[in-house]
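subagent[fold] <- orchestrator: predict structure for attached chain, return tokens only, no commentary.
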Amino acid sequence: MEQRTNVTEFVLLGLTQSLQGQKVLFVVFLLIYIMTMVDNLLIVVTVLVSPTLGAPMYFFLGYLSFMDAVYSATITPNMIIDLVREKKTTSFQACMSQLFIGHLFGAAETLLLVVMAYDRYVAIGKPLHYLTIMNQRVCILLLLLAWVGGFFAVVQLLFALNLPFCGPNVIDHFVCDMYPLLRLACTDTFFIGLTVVANSGGICVVIFVLLLISYGVILHSLKNLSQEGKRKALSTCGSHISVVLFFVPCIFMYVRPPSTLPIDKSLTVFYTVITPMLNPLIYTLRNGEMKIAMKKLWSRKRK
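subagent[fold] -> orchestrator:
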């Protein structure tokens, strides 16, 4: 414990050391962050106030947007500020908080995607029993399971809290993450590294496989639908399937021997900054009922 207090803050090197590059990235990421927060919070408000969006699908979409908003707010603002700040430091407590919240909401969101895939399977495969199967109690239970899985994923962070950091304190990254922190610890971190691979890496692989199987089953069940039914189902699920590709960076980052690579920063930008911006476009804003509800909400505010 005494060793750890030697390091009270960490220095983040950020995405680039180029001053010109930092200015460009500041503008780009600021616009992305504004778009991310506006889109996700708009979806949350629309789902909450629109009586026509009472179906289980919109219940889950609302929580997905809420998770994206919190996840983005945990990481992106600090990164944007550091791009224009000369001294890029973060306290030990702030670093651990970012690590905890980021992993909690990231893991819970990936599990929620599996829940949403199951919801689509029931809606397409058993349309007559959809509301009976996916009743309010079941929806809340599935959401709670996603959160429980998220808390299970952050168990590994207890190890990080007890790691001795006695210097140096420079992190070659723009966020606090497990592998860069393990490099700074002045103790043997082999076992903790394996725990990260088994925990974070295991979750990424399992969710990736479950989503592939889920949407494979959904696509197989389309053969029993009419042409119009197939068209609607494919319109809903086609974009959802593309989200499976987002797990590739996660798998590359965590399903490997504990180490840091130069490409890690770019991959982290993809799933911490870009994905929360794309999720509303992929899952929600292409939905006809959601668009109608947003238009009604907008016209109501103008009055």
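orchestrator: received. Logging for downstream: The longest strand covers residues 9-12. The mean pLDDT is 87.
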